[in-house]
Amino acid sequence: MNYFAGIDIGSTAIKIALIDEEKKILASKVTPTGSHFRKNAVTALETMLAGIDLCMKDLSYMTSTGYGRKLMKESDESVSEITANAIGAIEAGRQQGGDIKTIINIGGQDTKAIQIDDMGTVTNFAMNDKCAAGTGKFLDVTAMNLEIELEELGDYHFNIKGAPLPINSTCVVFAESEIIGLLADGHGKEEIVAGIHYSIAKRTVRLAKRVGLDGNVYFDGGPALNKGLVAAMEDELGKKLVIPDHPQITTALGAAVLAHEAFYDEMDEEE
Ligand code: ADP
């Protein structure tokens, strides 16, 4: 049996996907990136493999992607996260029976909108990596300031009693003071959370409009786990989003699929 690993070293989290010859996902792992990218990535990979009685030697091919991809010396190749994200979205979309045209990815420190054609080739692309206000960082700061868990943001969004509060700050640092000010004025956490979700959704939809929003729009990255943010995005877009079963590992899955392709391409060349 051949095994293929995709490893996505993101700014916030390391994601790993392991697939078999049929491209079936056998295991996956998400762990904080921390400051020792390579060491943390290797430890996470070994732990994931040990969980299914495998070790590094059992891997036929490994492809790394993401912010820290070049540091992963154990990989056979590295690819850009845009390529890996597009391939992963197509694979996850195919498994869900949906045809993907636009991908919106919100990461820990950047946001991307990618348009692909029927062959999965990237035809257009826009990125915000200059400002944290439309990224997962904004969610992390919100949860921390409101003293709630990241995983609870969705519930707070849906338990709103009034209207989502407008968040005026265009910078996460100022938004932090704005959140504290809103709490001091006696506003509910629910209304603040919903306001933050709409603020991120508005920025993201504005970015995605630059590449086009035709056909099915796929939403992935860690923040796609937040159902409140998904609802705000759908409201702003005026249509339903396609959310994969495991939105945070799409790019790692794409890297694993590319590892699978590279392995069989090399075998064909050798024959
Ligand atoms: P990157 O690839 O840039 O490291 P990810 O796609 O891994 O980014 O997303 C990281 C972000 O996902 C975090 O900043 C956090 O805001 C968000 N996130 C992670 N897990 C959850 C969760 N369970 N619920 C809501 N948001 C989450």
Note the topology.
Layout: E1 3-9, E2 13-19, E3 25-32, H1 37-50, E4 59-65, E5 77-78, H2 81-96, E6 100-106, E7 111-116, E8 122-128, H3 136-146, H4 153-158, H5 172-184, H6 189-209, E9 216-220, H7 227-237, H8 250-270
Parallel strand pairs: 1-4, 4-5, 6-9
Antiparallel strand pairs: 1-2, 2-3, 6-7, 7-8
Helix pairs in contact: 2-8, 3-5, 3-6, 6-7
Structure description:
By secondary structure, the protein is α/β, with parallel strands linked by helices. It folds into two domains: 1-96, ATPase, nucleotide binding domain (Nucleotidyltransferase, domain 5); 98-243, Nucleotidyltransferase, domain 5 (2-Layer Sandwich). It is built from eight helices and nine strands. The protein has helices at residues 37-50, 81-96, 136-146, 153-158, 172-184, 189-209, 227-237, 250-270, and strands at residues 3-9, 13-19, 25-32, 59-65, 77-78, 100-106, 111-116, 122-128, 216-220. A five-stranded mixed β-sheet has the order 3-2-1-4-5. It has a four-stranded mixed β-sheet with strand order 8-7-6-9, sandwiched between helices. A hairpin with a 5-residue loop joins β2 (13-19) and β3. α6 (189-209) packs across α7 (227-237). The model has no long low-confidence stretch (mean pLDDT 94). The chain binds adenosine-5'-diphosphate (ADP). Adenosine-5'-diphosphate binds at residues 10-13, 66, 107-109, 136-137, 139-140, 150-151, 153, 221-223, 225-226, 248. Adenosine-5'-diphosphate (ADP) binds next to α3.
